[in-house]
Known about the structure:
Blueprint: E1 3-8, H1 16-23, E2 29-32, E3 41-45, E4 48-52, E5 66-69, E6 74-75, H2 77-90, E7 98-100, E8 105-106, H3 109-118, H4 129-137, H5 144-149, H6 153-161, E9 164-165, H7 172-177, E10 180-187, H8 208-215, E11 222-228, E12 230-233, H9 245-255, E13 267-272, H10 273-283, E14 287-291, E15 301-307, E16 327-332, H11 344-354, E17 358-362, E18 370-372
Parallel strand pairs: 1-10, 1-11, 2-5, 2-10, 5-7, 6-8, 7-9, 11-14, 13-15, 14-17
Antiparallel strand pairs: 3-4, 12-13, 15-16, 17-18
Helix pairs in contact: 2-6, 3-4
Amino acid sequence: xxxxxxxxxxxxxxxxxxxxxxxxxxxxxxxxxxxxxxxxxxxxxxxxxxxxxxxxxxxxxxxxxxxxxxxxxxxxxxxxxxxxxxxxxxxxxxxxxxxxxxxxxxxxxxxxxxxxxxxxxxxxxxxxxxxxxxxxxxxxxxxxxxxxxxxxxxxxxxxxxxxxxxxxxxxxxxxxxxxxxxxxxxxxxxxxxxxxxxxxxxxxxxxxxxxxxxxxxxxxxxxxxxxxxxxxxxxxxxxxxxxxxxxxxxxxxxxxxxxxxxxxxxxxxxxxxxxxxxxxxxxxxxxxxxxxxxxxxxxxxxxxxxxxxxxxxxxxxxxxxxxxxxxxxxxxxxxxxxxxxxxxxxxxxxxxxxxxxxxxxxxxxxxxxxxxx
Length: 373
């Protein structure tokens, strides 16, 4: 496939980074199109853990793979310098494969201060994302091109490392001839337009963000949605299948469910098929990837929420759902996710309720744990 997208299917934190990293060797460009340093994409290279907040999850070990930070992003230039510096220390040539669209907006120190002061009620990461997007919409924001013209020290540093500043249209010939992988941020249920507003991020988590960042003329051959075999969420807002007490603590500990960006404990719950179906339709997803099957190893049964009593058609339908309206099915569990036959009842039900095929699964953190279904 020439061009694909990998999006978070529900609340994010589902393994997009790992799959982007795994697939990136087969692509020429890995493109972030939305969000900012509130994203925490955890990847493992040669057994070493890396967390990319701004950089796309490209596998820099393959010299043909390049990274592009698109105009739909809001970029904390100081944080980006830290990430680039880390790669520069590994190999100086890596940074020369990183490109930034000067039309992207900049997260300023005052945006982060405003975030801390005003947005605790929605579970913000305090990275200044919301205030930066607010400045953008108010036509008061600063673009990367403005920072370039002002010889901002962070721009000077990025130039020193070899990072390139190119508008998307300047690279049009390359993009048209090359293979593109678009990496989403957060998940569809946190999308500014279609998520559980106001408990959302401020960027586009659906395929519309790809088009809005200047790639409307590029056909997508596949749009993958990544979901866990259970559900997690960071921050406030509705979470119909949320667990509490000892059961939640045990699942959180088993899955190491703590935010890659903030370190906050994630809320945990069982897989939510109504939310997954809604997200796939709203997000433009046409194929699924399921992750973290190893975390549920050894369970006799695995609960799956299959209905709220009605089909959600808008984000308001996820609020104030009485617990007695949640309908669950218990499917046979698996002793070990390495035995793929044991996963069939669970995956068949996901496919049946979502109406989409599951094409890949993961059962661990190593690249070898990613397998086609």
